[in-house]
Write a structure and sequence with these properties.
It is a multi-pass membrane protein. This protein has 250 residues and is an alpha/beta fold. The chain has a domain at 46-201. It contains five helices and eight strands; from the N terminus they run H-E-H-E-E-E-E-H-E-E-H-E-H. A five-stranded mixed barrel has the order 2-4-5-8-6. Helix 2 links the parallel strand 1 and strand 2. The longest helix has 49 residues, at 2-50. The protein is elongated.
Length: 250
């Protein structure tokens, strides 16, 4: 009777061990797959950031652009900053700008192309730790001259807010996520391109706002995580083996 009761317990624990081990192994494999994908992404972004700038695609091609293929592509074009209210976008630090590692705001301004379309420009970083509207007003005022400017930058696509992203402050024209479509709608900029341009150059004489080149700094901890999951899988099997041996000896 006692032996009969033991068998289901051993079988049940063996099944639990098998499921747990398989889950840990699957998670380890998933991390290795993510590592491969991350390396491919880093290689693609590095290539795009190092490439010579190309002409901004015409408006007829904008709908076909997508982040997987076109994020961080360097482009050059001429546009005129529109005399419309700008937006501040808060940043606690940039993952692609070495010179913007602390808190501040990005200056988002609409600019009109010679063909009439509106493109949103991230004109650069302002070390505006208090998100003071007057600080950004002084910084961007000199950019809106009514004259066309030759610009070089990177295609970027709108970010989605997280569940902990604060709501925008309309009075300060302050946002906490880079979503030029939402900003344009709130500030009545009219129809804008489905992307914005992260400005590389030119920089104002005093460097405020501060545009600049981008660099890839993506975290790559997937191998470490994979080793952790595989180690846990091995530990579970060892623990099961020790348990079974102890039962036999008793």
């Amino acid at each position: 009777m006692r032996e009969t009761a033991r068998k289901p317990r051993v079988a049940g624990f063996a099944l639990f061990t098998l499921v747990l081990t398989a889950s840990f192994v699957a998670l380890g494999i998933w991390q290795l797959q993510r590592r491969t994908a991350k390396h491919e992404l880093i290689a693609a972004l590095t290539e795009r950031l190092a490439a010579a700038p190309v002409a901004l695609p015409p408006a007829a091609q904008w709908a076909a652009l997508n982040p997987a293929r076109d994020e961080f592509r360097r482009v050059s074009f001429t546009a005129t900053y529109a005399p419309l209210p700008d937006a501040m976008v808060y940043s606690s630090g940039s993952a692609v700008r070495k010179d913007a590692s602390g808190p501040g705001t990005w200056a988002f301004l609409p600019a009109r192309l010679a063909t009439g379309e509106m493109v949103v420009i991230d004109a650069g970083f302002i070390e505006n730790t208090m998100q003071d509207r007057s600080v950004e007003d002084r910084a961007v005022k000199k950019l809106v001259t009514g004259q066309a400017v030759a610009l070089t930058g990177y295609l970027r696509f709108p970010e989605a807010p997280g569940w902990m992203t604060p709501a925008e402050n309309r009075d300060k024209r302050l946002w906490f996520v880079r979503d030029q479509l939402a900003i344009a709608s709130a500030l009545h900029w009219g129809a804008v391109a489905p992307f914005y341009v992260d400005l590389e150059q030119p920089a104002p004489e005093n460097g405020i706002p501060r545009p600049g080149p981008l660099d890839v700094h993506l975290k790559d901890d997937h191998l470490q995580y994979a080793v952790t999951w595989f180690t846990l899988a091995g530990a579970v099997l060892i623990a099961f083996g020790v348990w079974v041996r102890a039962r036999r000896e008793s």
